[in-house]
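Tokens as discussed.
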């Protein structure tokens, strides 16, 4: 396991992060994507930690609090040293139906949810507290004031965000800079070899502003595991069969899988490991969040850290997954290209 700095901070996190969305969940969506009981979840936490994973990501809305509770119990049961763990959670989603202030990013809601998360996780602070999306109703300055107070109180070490547009991220950074508030240090976003949209606007922003990138759903909800067919069939009981998310251009995805399968065969690896290794090789990626329901799935994911893709592999994978050119990208490349060439003299 290798470790990388989170954005411009001095905090090292493992290149693979253990996602806990599969922990808990007894009904509805959360039963479909998760449903793991305490003992099974604890075993996965131990397996990940023993493999060198120090970064664990959860959210208040996962299982409506069950994921945080199970994660907290697992840490306690295993006696994991707190100073060797980086714990991340999130807030935004609705935690109680028909309760008007039970969601969003108002100071009222975020303050309540931070205390609730701390209690469920049995911790006195959160290492990375993230906005789980963009709230179009709460002014960004109110949100950032609240997050800044959390950091100053000692209950939160760093702040991050998820699933925002480039302009929203930059607006937040601008407010923090202008008012000397705690700034976002990380972005959690969907990014796969079959879904490279992030590279158009957000990746250049991350690199310019030195933000860490945490990748969620690196296998596109299992679609890039190599276990699904172009006709939509797949393993019985798989999440994709009953919960077709995230949104993916499937013909494009299966073209990628065809090439990934060839690469996997050359390296005696799995298709899923190729998908993860491709992400781990992207310079903009800090950590890849892996979710698992079984020890075998987790072990397969962990194996991606030992897979090194060669130049021919990357050339084939990049070619099949390349984004079509869009304006203003193609114009920027046309105008900026000559500027990047060193001037010479005849």
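Sequence:
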């Amino acid at each position: 396991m290798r470790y990388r700095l989170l954005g411009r901070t001095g905090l090292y996190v493992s290149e693979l992060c253990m996602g806990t969305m599969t922990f808990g969940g007894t009904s509805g969506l959360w039963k479909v994507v998760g449903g793991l009981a305490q003992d099974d979840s604890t075993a996965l936490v131990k397996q990940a930690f023993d493999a060198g994973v120090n970064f664990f990501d959860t959210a208040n809305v996962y299982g409506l609090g069950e994921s945080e509770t199970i994660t907290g119990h697992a840490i306690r049961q295993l006696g994991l040293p707190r100073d060797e763990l980086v714990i991340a959670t999130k807030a935004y989603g609705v935690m109680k139906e028909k309760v008007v202030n039970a969601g969003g990013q108002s100071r009222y809601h975020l303050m309540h949810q931070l205390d609730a998360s701390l209690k469920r996780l049995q911790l006195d602070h959160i290492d990375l507290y993230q906005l789980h999306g963009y709230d179009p109703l709460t002014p960004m300055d109110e949100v950032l004031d609240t997050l800044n107070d959390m950091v100053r109180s000692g209950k939160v070490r760093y702040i991050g965000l998820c699933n925002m547009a480039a302009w929203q991220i930059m607006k937040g950074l601008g407010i923090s800079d202008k008012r000397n508030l705690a700034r976002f240090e990380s972005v959690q976003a969907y990014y796969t070899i079959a879904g490279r949209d992030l590279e158009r606007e957000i990746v250049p922003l991350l690199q310019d502003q030195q933000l860490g990138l945490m990748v969620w759903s690196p296998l596109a909800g299992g679609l890039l595991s190599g276990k699904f067919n172009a006709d939509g069939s797949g393993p019985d009981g798989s999440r994709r069969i009953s919960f077709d998310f995230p949104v993916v251009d499937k013909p494009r995805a299966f073209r990628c899988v065809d090439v990934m399968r060839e690469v996997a065969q050359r390296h005696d690896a799995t298709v899923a490991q190729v998908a993860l290794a491709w992400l781990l090789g992207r310079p903009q990626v800090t950590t890849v969040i892996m979710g698992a329901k079984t020890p075998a799935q987790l072990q397969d994911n962990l194996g991606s850290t030992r897979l090194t893709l060669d130049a021919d592999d990357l050339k084939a994978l990049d070619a099949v997954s390349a984004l079509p050119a869009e304006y203003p990208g193609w114009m920027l490349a046309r105008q900026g290209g000559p500027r990047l060439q060193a001037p010479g003299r005849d």
